[in-house]
Amino acid sequence: MQTTIRSAVSFQGVGLHSGRAARLTIRPASAEHGIWFKRTDILLGDALVPARWDAVEVSPLCTRIRNRAGATISTIEHVMAALAGCGIHNALVEIDGPEVPILDGSSAPFVRAILARGTRTLRAPVRAIEILAPVHVQTARGWARLSPARPGQGLTMDFHIAFDDAAIGEQDKSLNLANGSFVRELCDSRTFCRQADVDAMQANGLALGGTYENAVVVDGDKVLSPGGLRHADEAVRHKMLDALGDLYTAGMPILGHYEGHKAGHAMTNMLLAALFAAPDAWRVVECDAVCAATLPGAGVEIDEIPAVA
């Protein structure tokens, strides 16, 4: 059955790009509500923004959503990944500014708080998007693909990245997102960037809230962030975290196999647009107990969060 968070939980921090302080609260919502954001600082006009693929604006550095009245919320991917990975189908996410606080640069703070609150079962069945035929998008930089699920599996993921900096280099990871693997394997992996990129972004008014504590910053073969990496392949794990959050803007869990080759936020959104433009490539299914057990949030326990986070 569908779920929501049992009680509200709040977070405070600064936006990674804006540097603006923000307070975010995840509140319970009714069945069939889905995931919506609300700008509590907007007192006149429409302050509600759906966390949906067709509300996403093109933005290479984060996932930003906008409603028809022009209200925006940026950098939603980490909290969206936490909601997906904890099996939360319905929630109202209130925020008093235009950007989600970055916290430690991962989803772990959101995951820990959600699991500490627990979930409440609602009187409506979980529905999922089953991929029936491959859908592929490609740019000069990379590609992404959704294919039918492997037998007996829900959402699986293969990801490949390649960076010139030796501290990252080339990394590959494959993961079945069932049985709490998001919480165990991905949720604590932080956003990352090159020192040269930080300098360029800050010169252009971006990454104003970035620090060595809320992002992994590398320079050549050096990791500049104190304490180093949480995982040797933390970079590709974070890319998979981002992809799960971005895929959740489909409005339902996805039953299929996602592949990303040097993919990012914009490409995953392109992939969802291509999917929904191909009606023969997908269908909505009602999940029985067997299907529901393959979803990312099934069987998650709070003690599965890595201790390093």
From TrEMBL:
UniProt KW Zinc keyword: yes
SUPFAM superfamilies: Ribosomal protein S5 domain 2-like
Enzyme Commission code(s) on record: 3.5.1.108
One GO term describing the cellular component: membrane
Single GO biological process annotation from the record: lipid A biosynthetic process
Residues annotated for Zn(2+) binding in this entry: 78, 238, 242
Key words, A-Z: Hydrolase, Lipid A biosynthesis, Lipid biosynthesis, Lipid metabolism, Metal-binding, Zinc
Similarity comment text for this entry: Belongs to the LpxC family.
Annotated protein name in UniProt: UDP-3-O-acyl-N-acetylglucosamine deacetylase
Cofactor(s), names only, from the UniProt record: Zn(2+)
Any GO molecular function: metal ion binding
InterPro entries: Ribosomal_Su5_D2-typ_SF, UDP-acyl_GlcNac_deAcase, UDP-acyl_GlcNac_deAcase_C, UDP-acyl_N-AcGlcN_deAcase_N
Organism: Salipiger aestuarii
Function comment: Catalyzes the hydrolysis of UDP-3-O-myristoyl-N-acetylglucosamine to form UDP-3-O-myristoylglucosamine and acetate, the committed step in lipid A biosynthesis.
Pathway where this protein functions: Glycolipid biosynthesis; lipid IV(A) biosynthesis; lipid IV(A) from (3R)-3-hydroxytetradecanoyl-[acyl-carrier-protein] and UDP-N-acetyl-alpha-D-glucosamine: step 2/6
Domain of life per record: Bacteria
Catalytic residues identified in the record: 265 (proton donor)
Reaction catalyzed: a UDP-3-O-[(3R)-3-hydroxyacyl]-N-acetyl-alpha-D-glucosamine + H2O = a UDP-3-O-[(3R)-3-hydroxyacyl]-alpha-D-glucosamine + acetate
